[in-house]
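Quick note —
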Amino acid sequence: MADQPLWHGRFEASPAEALMMFTESLSFDQKLWRDDIIGSIAHVKGLAHAQIISEAESDKVISALNTVAQEFNDGKFVFVASDEDIHTAIERRVTQLAGDAGAKLHTGRSRNDQVATALRLWCKRELTNIAQLTLALCDVFNKRAQEFGWGSDGVYLPGYTHMQRAQPVLLAHHFAAHAWAMLRDVDRLTQTIERLDVSPLGAGALAGSSLPLDADFVATELGFARRFNNSLDAVSDRDFVAEALFDLALIGVHLSRLGEEWVLWTTQEFSFAVLDDAYSTGSSMLPQKKNADIAELARGKSGRLIGNLTGLLATLKGMPLAYNRDLQEDKEPLFDSVNQVALALRALAGMISTAKFNTSTMQSAADSELLGATDLAEWLVAQGMPFREAHAHVGALVSKSIRDSVPLSQLVTDDKKLGDKAAELLKPGVGVKRRTTKGGSGPVPGATQAIELSAALTVMHARVATFNAPQTNS
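Predicted structure written out below.
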């Protein structure tokens, strides 16, 4: 009966409207239509493989499923009031199209293993897409690093600790720092995809089936790496959703940190970067304004992503085996986080790739003599002075320079322990070239890092490409 849910046979009364309104998930789980149909086709093939239904019945049901897929693609699928979720909606329509054969679609299957299967298929595709978008942003960082140079003539700017100018660093080194962090994000995503690459189909409601189902056959049909080991675990496991939400939240944290930086860099006070008009906004009242809204929203949405993760963890923490309706709450935060991170990655890649940099302003800020204080201390160390003594000696000169408004270079020149040679360290562009340790921000280690970063990106692109090419629902 089209006006009754598929489970109505157990009940004498129709479900109350309040119950249906509170328990429905169709409003958000429609995203899974493609995955549910893919899972259903594999299940039907499995039923025929096990000789539970005939090949003719299998062909008829699969034809109906393909028709439903076309209806979704064409925007012509019609939902009815009794459709609780995307899974029951598709089964109802298939039964309408295929008749008695369609009524056999759910043989040996529960919505519990059906939902888990569709969600895993969706995650495989969408997390692969996020990994590719993250790599695209890494590629932007790498390209801009190469543009501004890793060599002795590379553009440099102040590096900061505690948001105070600390030491000059190559702009390429700064870009690469973000790229390395986001490469770790991609690595986490690929590991999550590999762990979730398990087929739950055949687990049934919680205990499997008395029918001769071949879960390995269905897993292969679906492109999963393996089948489940325990039916109870298969239908109740949402570790993969929690992992995905953590991965996405941490990407969001990295993007938030990046956003904060660009909010600062594009202020008149910093004036390190200028956004392209296409990637900035104006004010409804202040005609002169050019706002870094993408950067601000990247910063702001991180709280939303963290909230999605903590919300799901709170839902899962008291969940008994096996399936409970609470698990319906896994989808909205997951769908939201995937969507928001995808939007942010695309917007930030465009913003950074088109931005212009005031390199003279950057370098002028990094050429402050005070940023050479560590070089002076290390110069004294090279002369045999203990570091703590050298630190205190230079610190006293810095204090005097600030207090008496005397150039530090003059004090260094006049100092008996330092002198003219040490004062050379304070000249513009000298300090950034003195970083020689591996992984440091200097031309020598920079040449190595440039090769390492490009190689790491190539390896990660190849790794992500081993997953199925994504066709997003988002």
